[in-house]
């Protein structure tokens, strides 16, 4: 095969042009180098590109018949350890495009083995992801960064997930969904913002801004936005990995094990997070919007 099959999936959406777009490549028999995968991700130029590789010996019908695969995710700038919407997109391509009827797809990743259970009738996918519960932190440690990202809205606290390097910024419950949707932080300034001197420069790789969704349009448990200019993503439209932090946080606040969430980017998307002792099961829909092939990769 001299070309690479490539697809675009809108994760966390029932319709095209909503949710979070992810490119998905089925890695051919000859494989792809790290440089080739990074170049492809830069060419696709969306938040993440997922690369699915057959786990054992390659076979022509392997993407249809096998249940276990290797999965990697690249932003246009770097490889990342965990990508929820990229995992969902990979499962959607295997199930809806390749015709894989496996009820439990298994992906070996930098974050361990991840399982996805497709529901073809509902066109939905349930991902089993690691739990990355944040720990309450001091706003003063991040004040300059928080002032940028909150964009003038009232902040009541923050929490930090060391495993993901994500900072969660909690806005006051009085903040409306419209106000959250309207913030326009200077993402270029965020990586330059000073944080506490005892932290390493790479201490923060992404910021979740969140408020309660109760008694607001949709009546969700949690509303959020997510910004990650540190890895080349000014704003991620709908972020599965952020909800491995956000879900446990709101579960603790609300005393619930199941959290309904809305990520309030321009594209927007809905998620359900079921929190257990050490895992977060995130469910949502996915829509395939593009099918094609990449040429010139092996020249």
Number of helices: 6
Main β sheet profile: 8 strands, mixed, barrel
User: What would you report as the Rg, rounded to the nearest angstrom?
Assistant: 19 Å
Give the termini distance in whole angstroms. Answer: 12 Å
Strand content: 35-45%
Task: Provide the residue-averaged pLDDT.
Answer: 96
**Spans where pLDDT lies below 50 across 5 or more residues:** none
Percent helix, as a range, is 10-25%
Q: Please provide the ordered H/E string of secondary-structure elements.
A: EEHEHEEHEEEEHEEHEEHEEE
Shape: globular
What's the multimeric state?
A: single chain
Which structural class best describes the helix and strand composition? alpha+beta
Give the spatial strand order of the biggest sheet: 1-2-3-4-6-7-8-16
Count every beta strand, where a strand is a DSSP E run of 2 or more residues: 16
Please describe what this structure looks like.
This protein is an alpha+beta fold and 299 residues long. Helix content is 18%, strand content 36%. An 8-stranded mixed barrel has the order 1-2-3-4-6-7-8-16. Strand 2, helix 1 and strand 3 form a beta-alpha-beta unit. It starts with a strand and ends in a 5-residue tail after the last strand. The model has no long low-confidence stretch (mean pLDDT 96).
How is this fold's topology laid out?
Layout: E1 4-11, E2 20-26, H1 34-44, E3 48-54, H2 62-65, E4 68-74, E5 79-80, H3 84-97, E6 105-109, E7 112-119, E8 124-130, E9 135-137, H4 143-150, E10 155-161, E11 166-171, H5 177-182, E12 206-212, E13 222-227, H6 243-254, E14 258-263, E15 269-275, E16 279-294
Parallel strand pairs: 2-3, 4-6, 11-12, 13-14
Antiparallel strand pairs: 1-2, 1-16, 3-4, 4-5, 6-7, 7-8, 8-16, 9-10, 10-11, 12-13, 14-15, 15-16
């Amino acid at each position: 095969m001299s070309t690479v099959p490539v697809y675009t999936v809108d994760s966390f959406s029932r319709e095209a042009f909503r949710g979070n777009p992810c490119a998905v490549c089925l890695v051919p028999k000859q494989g792809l180098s790290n440089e080739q995968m990074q170049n492809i991700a830069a060419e696709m130029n969306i938040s993440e590109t997922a690369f699915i590789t057959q786990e054992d010996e390659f076979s022509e019908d392997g993407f249809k018949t096998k249940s276990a695969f290797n999965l990697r995710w690249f932003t246009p700038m770097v490889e990342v350890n965990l990508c929820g919407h990229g995992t969902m997109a990979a499962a959607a391509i295997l199930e809806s495009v390749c015709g894989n009827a496996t009820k439990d797809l298994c992906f070996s990743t930098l974050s361990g083995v991840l399982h996805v259970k497709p529901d073809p009738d509902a066109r939905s996918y349930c991902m089993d992801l690691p739990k990355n519960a944040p720990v309450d932190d001091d706003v003063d440690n991040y004040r300059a960064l928080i002032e940028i990202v909150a964009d003038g809205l009232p902040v009541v606290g923050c929490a930090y997930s060391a495993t993901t390097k994500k900072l969660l910024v909690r806005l006051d419950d009085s903040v409306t969904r419209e106000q959250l949707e309207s913030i326009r932080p200077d993402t270029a300034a965020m990586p330059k913002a000073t944080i506490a001197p005892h932290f390493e420069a790479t201490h923060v790789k992404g910021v979740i801004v969140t408020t309660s969704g109760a008694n607001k349009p949709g009546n969700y448990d949690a509303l959020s936005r997510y910004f990650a200019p540190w890895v080349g993503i000014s704003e991620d439209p709908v972020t599965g990995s952020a909800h491995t932090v956000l879900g446990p946080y709101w579960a603790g606040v609300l005393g619930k094990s199941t959290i309904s969430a809305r990520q309030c980017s321009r594209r927007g998307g809905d998620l359900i997070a079921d929190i257990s002792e050490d895992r977060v099961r995130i469910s949502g829909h996915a829509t395939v919007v593009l099918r094609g092939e990449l040429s010139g990769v092996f020249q």
